[in-house]
Design brief:
With 381 residues, the protein is mainly alpha-helical. It folds into 2 domains: 142 residues, no CATH class; 180 residues, no CATH class. Helix content is 84%, strand content 0%. It contains 13 helices and no strands. Helix 2 packs across helix 8 and helix 3 packs antiparallel against helix 6. It starts with 6 loop residues before the first helix and ends in a 12-residue tail after the last helix. It is a multi-pass membrane protein. This is AI-2E family transporter. Keywords: Cell membrane, Membrane, Transmembrane, Transmembrane helix, Transport.
């Protein structure tokens, strides 16, 4: 016996679906407006993001100094200076050895070009010097025809470099202020929030901060792993400048896609110049193998453990962020996914049937009165 559909139940289901769709559209519109606002104020948001990521690395030292009686200003100043010295030292480890072998490197590049021309002249390409000369002349003609385009691109590149320097300087100053006054932020924020938000917002902020710290530490660990593996490979092949290349690989790990490509290109170029074509191919194979293991196995596994996200979620987040915003999207994709996960977990806790009331929440008082668990001593005046 067939059963007919209930018109009342069907209308109720459609009404529920319509309301749910309308609410979802409102949320999506709000997210779209927020993203547009962030894009409009990106020149301010980007230095703040970089400063927060740097602070997650340097804040433990500043906190340790404060807990041992140092004034907040002095602790932040010493920590900032030490961080700058570490960065400068890393750059020195790269620049000085390369500069000391600049002459040998230049002659090696010339020899490499000559070897490439000899290889191109033989089978299977059989490209003669006349053809190479014609190609160079054609390239020069193209350059002359597009001088205006090259000038505009160059000026754009110079503007990008200037903006990068300004952003870096601003991020360093912001990092100093975050180190100096960051431990007072959550109590101040709690006082500004009305009602239940005075409890919920500090808790979410504390969890988000811990998540960012886990992300940066995991990224540093992945960079160190890349540097060690590639450094061992370069040493085994006999490539010079192993230490500068390893340091460059570590620093490049913090710049998605471009950092790894640039560090790998430099390593292959030096191998080609000093060790020949075969060694360069071996180095290229080592770098590709390490990068594949890092991008598809090590990084998703390490970050998923530190952020509480599945490795597949991390991999998809990086892919989506890169497709939407390029390099910046790849850099911010994982922390943004972690922030969404933190917010979702907290909302799920609060929406559970046995969730405690705000005043009974055991984490609320700790988040407001003691944003960092290790800050057990009073702040010196």
């Amino acid at each position: 016996m067939s059963r007919s559909l209930s018109a009342a139940k069907a209308n109720a289901a459609l009404t529920t679906a319509a309301w749910a769709t309308a609410k979802l559209l409102v949320v999506l519109v709000g997210i779209w407006i927020l993203l547009r606002m962030l894009n409009a104020s990106w020149s301010v948001v980007w230095p703040v993001v970089i400063a927060l990521l740097l602070t997650t690395l340097t804040e433990p030292l500043s906190r340790w100094l404060r807990n041992h009686g140092w004034p907040a200003v002095l602790a932040a100043t010493v920590t900032t200076i030490l961080a700058l010295l570490v960065v400068v030292g890393a750059l020195v480890l790269i620049v000085v050895p390369v500069a000391s072998q600049a002459e040998e490197l230049a002659s090696g590049v010339t020899e490499g070009i000559d070897q490439a021309r000899e290889w191109a002249a033989g089978p299977p390409l059989n490209i003669g010097d006349d053809q190479i000369t014609q190609g160079i002349d054609a390239g020069i003609a193209q350059v002359q025809e597009r001088v205006s385009d090259i000038i505009s691109v160059t000026l754009t590149g110079v503007g990008t470099i200037v903006n990068g320097v300004v952003t870096a300087v601003l991020a360093v100053f912001l990092m100093f202020f975050f180190l100096k006054d960051g431990h007072r932020f959550l109590p101040w924020l709690s006082q500004q929030m009305p009602g239940r938000l005075a409890v919920d917002v500090p808790i979410v902020a504390t969890r988000t901060w811990n998540m960012l710290g886990s992300f940066v530490r995991s990224q540093a660990f992945v960079g160190a792993l890349d540097a060690i593996c590639i450094g061992i490979g370069l040493w085994a092949v006999g490539v010079p400048l192993v230490l500068p290349l390893a340091v460059l690989t570590f620093l490049g790990a913090f710049i998605p896609i471009v950092g790894a490509l640039f560090a790998g290109f430099v390593a292959v170029l030096i191998a080609l110049v000093f060790n020949g074509f075969t060694a360069a191919l071996i180095v290229l194979g080592i770098i590709l193998a390490v990068q594949q293991l890092e991008g598809n196995i090590f990084q998703p596994m390490i970050q998923s453990r530190g952020l509480g996200l599945h490795a597949a979620v991390v991999l998809l987040a990086v892919t989506l962020g890169g497709s939407l915003m390029g390099i910046v999207g790849s850099l911010l994709a994982v922390p943004v996914a972690g922030m969404v996960a933190v917010l979702w977990v907290y909302l799920r806790e609060q929406l559970a049937e046995d969730a405690p009331e705000p005043e009974e929440h055991p984490e609320a008082e700790d988040a407001v009165s003691d944003p960092y668990a290790e800050d057990t001593q009073p702040e010196p005046s």
